């Protein structure tokens, strides 16, 4: 009985597609010349194939469960008059288009591809050029955004976000490339998402920006040379693993800016040539392990409002300053890190130094009090007072120290 | 004038001190470049070393040489050569031989390992620094008659420019922290040839983005054409003005 029921349900699920599904072909000079016509003609479960060509698409609304495939990258163009495409039905697959020239405006967020209140949609292999917002997801679940190439207008006054998520759940972003937008990837209230293998560079503001987006995982992404680096705020339980933050360089630009983040895991990331590798404010219970901080201005700036953060097994190499702070740090733990400025010794040869390392130098404290004294950087007197302070610490905070500094660079 | 310079160059090049100085610089540059794969970091280390050693050696060696060659000077004065030509000849002779040492010891390794805008800035600032400290050495040598006093004064000057001045600047910054000091800082920088050289090199390196607002202002000023001209001009003033006073004193001096 049970078994036959399963078979019947299986048949019901499997049968409809091959029996009733049609393929509608859109091409210039045929009966169906726009995507809009094709969507009107189609039924749930149909496939629309769009041949190579340029199609004007003034907010084509996809309100049926369709598979829409672009052959040889057809162009959907909104000519700066409307949005290009809005998907309002679940189970849609959109693949292989060039989507360009959405309208810009300050009242509405015009987007290249908008997904609104839908589930199980896949957006893949599209190239988005010159849109106000690139891919805009609002109130969606179970969406996949794969291998899209999103390029904005690089216009400071009139630029939206590359990939924008608002109130979403369980979204997968994989292999996307975003550039020249305001924020490369923007999340607000997007929970339990996975962001992998994306590349975000040269965006006007942040490469990645998220707020109130709990339980997200960021893996193996690269954020390079963005106007303000990466900014993450008001979020719990995120994991940032094996990402690369590189060359986010300039005054008040951060590799990662953490503000009111709790219970985060930051592991295996590379921070290379950023003005500030990690900036932390009001961030509690964060574990920062196995990261490489190389050639940054400030490897880390940990404000006094942070609590119970652990920094272990990181490499700090070639940074102008390892750690700075603005007050008294409490319950911030450093352990087992490699510091290239460490001058201690290891008598028992167990690989860890015998005297603690104090990552906050006196000069870093002076700069903190008086930013203009940066002018004296690398002068003889500064080296001298730093050496004296290291030998006889009196001003630098006693509590911030690595009891077991590693003698050799961690090999990854 | 040039003939005097030629004699002096030939004399100095044969001396062991200059050879030692050349080898020291060469050893430092090569060790740093060969031991560290990161060229930029190497340049930073070289900058730190150069900013201490180059002024020290230039001022002390030039002063010592000046006093050691006092009899030669007396002999020259008895000849029908103007005192201006004698002093300038000496200056050209001493400075070109020390510059030669700097060239071999620093410029060649930098050209080989790190030929970039930063490298060029380092070389030019190093040369100008050498010249300005030789010029200061001439001033101290003409002011005093006594060799020990002269060398003491030279050392004092070096100590002042490389340590005390920055300490005073730090004190000044702390005392007047509440005031906008950006412009004042640019002026203060110009008052010390070592600081000028250091800032010029560091602006090419890591400092620029670290400095926030101050940095932006610095970058805007020293990074611009006017700023570069200004700092080169200031370096020139640090060469010309002490030499000018030295000349003035030397002309009237009873040897």
Full CATH superfamily name of chain A: Single-stranded right-handed beta-helix, Pectin lyase-like
If classified by CATH, what would the architecture of chain A be?
Answer: 3 Solenoid
Order of helices and strands of chain B: HHHHHHHHHHHH
CATH domain class name of chain A: Mainly Beta
Summed up:
The complex is a heterodimer of chains A (412) and B (255). With 412 residues, chain A is mainly beta.
Describe the fold and architecture.
The complex is a heterodimer of chains A (412) and B (255). Chain A is mainly beta and 412 residues long. Chain A has one domain: Pectate Lyase C-like (3 Solenoid), CATH 2.160.20.10. Chain A is 11% helix and 39% strand. Chain A has five helices and 38 strands. Chain A has a 25-stranded parallel β-sheet that branches. The model of chain A has no long low-confidence stretch (mean pLDDT 90). Classes of the chains: A mainly beta (412), B mainly alpha (255). The interface between A and B is medium-sized, with 29 and 38 residues.
Element layout with pairings:
The complex is a heterodimer of chains A (412) and B (255).
Chain A: H1 2-14, H2 16-20, E1 23-26, H3 35-41, E2 47-50, E3 54-56, E4 60-62, E5 67-70, E6 75-77, E7 85-87, E8 93-95, E9 98-100, E10 111-116, E11 119-124, E12 127-129, E13 133-138, E14 141-146, E15 149-151, E16 163-174, E17 177-179, E18 185-191, E19 194-196, E20 199-201, E21 208-211, E22 217-219, E23 222-224, E24 229-236, E25 239-241, E26 244-246, E27 254-262, E28 265-267, E29 270-272, E30 276-281, E31 287-289, E32 292-294, E33 298-302, E34 309-312, E35 315-317, E36 321-324, E37 332-335, E38 338-339, H4 362-369, H5 380-391
Parallel strand pairs in A: 1-2, 2-5, 3-6, 4-7, 5-8, 6-9, 7-10, 8-11, 9-12, 10-13, 11-14, 12-15, 13-16, 14-16, 15-17, 16-18, 16-19, 17-20, 18-21, 19-22, 20-23, 21-24, 22-25, 23-26, 24-27, 25-28, 26-29, 27-30, 28-31, 29-32, 30-33, 31-34, 32-35, 33-36, 34-37, 35-38
Chain B: H1 2-14, H2 16-35, H3 39-68, H4 70-78, H5 83-113, H6 117-143, H7 147-175, H8 182-190, H9 193-204, H10 207-210, H11 212-223, H12 225-252
